[in-house]
Write a structure and sequence with these properties.
This protein has about 130 residues and is of the alpha+beta class. The termini are far apart. The chain is built from 4 helices and 3 strands.
């Protein structure tokens, strides 16, 4: 006796990819996510390839994963995909300390983030 498979949470014309433990602050990651929201998948990949932000490399991998999920798992047309959602969330915060003069110390916070990218297939008449 096995469990029933989980029902799909996304719509039939959507696919998603989630990156969970990214070592960057959510504020900095959101700057890169804003660049690709609403763009076509090809244009967004191109935008990330030439971005000077360090985290753009990981965001590009997540977007490629979402596009691959759409193509292989959900049989969506890659040419009609666009980034419908790129959301950023907070992860854990590692706390460290830095020794200072006169026996004092200062706190250092190393934040982590998570990124969710959802790509959606445009309708046939919208794509033209």
């Amino acid at each position: 006796m096995s469990k029933k498979p989980n029902e799909r949470r996304e719509a039939e014309n959507e696919a998603k990819s989630v990156l969970r433990v990214l070592r960057v602050s959510p504020r900095k990651l959101n700057l890169v996510a804003q660049q690709i929201r609403g763009l076509g998948a090809g244009k967004a990949l191109n935008e990330l390839a030439f971005s000077r932000k360090r985290i753009a490399v990981d965001v590009r991998k997540a977007l490629q994963s979402a596009v691959a999920n759409a193509e292989n798992n959900h049989q969506l047309d890659v040419d009609r995909l666009f980034v419908s959602e790129a959301s950023v969330g907070k992860g854990i915060v590692m706390k460290r300390f830095h020794t200072r003069a006169r026996g004092r110390s200062a706190g250092i916070e190393k934040p982590f983030s998570q990124l969710t990218i959802v790509v959606r297939e445009r309708a046939q008449e919208e794509a033209n």
